[in-house]
């Protein structure tokens, strides 16, 4: 690319973004509408570490919470290798759909394989013991509908 084109492209980008990049409002502006805020999706394929547990919230809804591990020992099966295996990455999954939560409690057990798609959200709460504000990243499944299987035999992966 020629230098003149790159300078022209940079100028047009500056004109598009404006001089005040930091002061741009993220969210809903009644005059402009929605602005792009990003996509926060995750696809996790791994083994269930903690069996699903259902909790009832104050508003009466149920949330199913479990953990999924990715990587780790089952990722490196080289016999005779002196390298230590990578530690497993643990992901906290929160299912906010009642039917999918019931399916997870019935079908998922520890060390079963699972495929999860959901939004990455950070839950903020105050720790009652230390008084600190803590942030917990979660993969939240809020999709409507239930995953069904057409085959009578059990599948190797459970889809949520």
UniProtKB/TrEMBL annotation:
Keywords from the UniProt entry: DNA-binding
Gene Ontology terms: biological process: mitochondrial DNA replication
Pfam families: SSB
Residues that span the membrane, as ranges: none
InterPro entries, per database record: NA-bd_OB-fold, Primosome_PriB/ssb, ssDNA-bd
Keyword Hydrolase: no
Keyword DNA-binding: yes
Gene Ontology CC entries for this record: mitochondrial nucleoid
Gene Ontology molecular function, alphabetical: single-stranded DNA binding
Protein name, per record: SINGLE-STRANDED DNA-BINDING PROTEIN
Lineage: Eukaryota, Viridiplantae, Streptophyta, Embryophyta, Tracheophyta
